[in-house]
Amino acid sequence: MHFSLADLAADITQNSAESGASLVGLEIRETVAPGVPAKGEFRFIAGDNGKGMSGAGLDRAMDPFVTDGVKHPGRKVGLGLPFLIQTAVQSGGGWRISSATAGGERAIRSGGGAPADGVSAAGIDASGTDTAGASGTTAEAWFDLANVDTPPVGDIPGLFRTVLLFSGPQEIVLKRSRKGGNAELDYEVKKTELTEALGGDLEDVSSLVLLGKYLRSLEGFEEE
After folding, report:
1. 158 lies in a domain?
2. What's the chain look like in SS3?
3. Is residue 114 predicted with pLDDT exceeding 80?
4. Count of domains for the chain
5. pTM for the full model?
């Protein structure tokens, strides 16, 4: 279903964009070490300030045989979070999902191995703001890059462009870091700032081209 970790991150972030949230964030963290095959950890954190889920609701979302029939009419199973969990665990990583409703009910589910640095995104949205007491959902997953079952990382600039075009949220915040190796990265992108810089319409053909070039430049790609 998902050919890369970027595809998986896009699918999970789309859930956040469709949650009725005004703020959606996606953070990509990557640590690499020299060697062949590649060694290190890839992790993404997708968060929103939407309506959140109760414990029972979160359990239903994690059940591959349950779907609301709204997002994908005709589909009899829901594969977003279940596939995330399966992929993370099979690739030697792990996962953590935390959610809170406006009524104050909070739920946390997790599994697999501990992340390399022991840091969890619980209670923090992807904009870096403490969300304790607020509603919303955060899904975090990490993957061992040296594991043979880990999918390839995929196209990160393409992932970010896809997420920026999700409709619904007033603000989308993207964060990216890569430590180790020959090319370290650390940057942040906000949809509102890009929309203003590109004249108010990211979906315009010329804006899409410029957006793609800009995101690739942040990753260190040189355009011909």
Report:
1. yes
2. CCCCHHHHHHHHHHHHHCCCCCEEEEEEEEEEECCCCCEEEEEEEEEECCCCCCHHHHHHHCCCCCCCCCCCCCCCCCCHHHHHHHHHHHCCCEEEEEEECCCCCEEEEEEECCCCCCCCCCCECCCCCECCCCCEEEEEEEEECCCCCCCCCCCHHHHHHHHHCCCCCCEEEEEEEEECCCCCEEEEEEHHHHHHHCCCCCCCHHHHHHHHHHHHHHCCCCCC
3. no
4. 1
5. 0.85
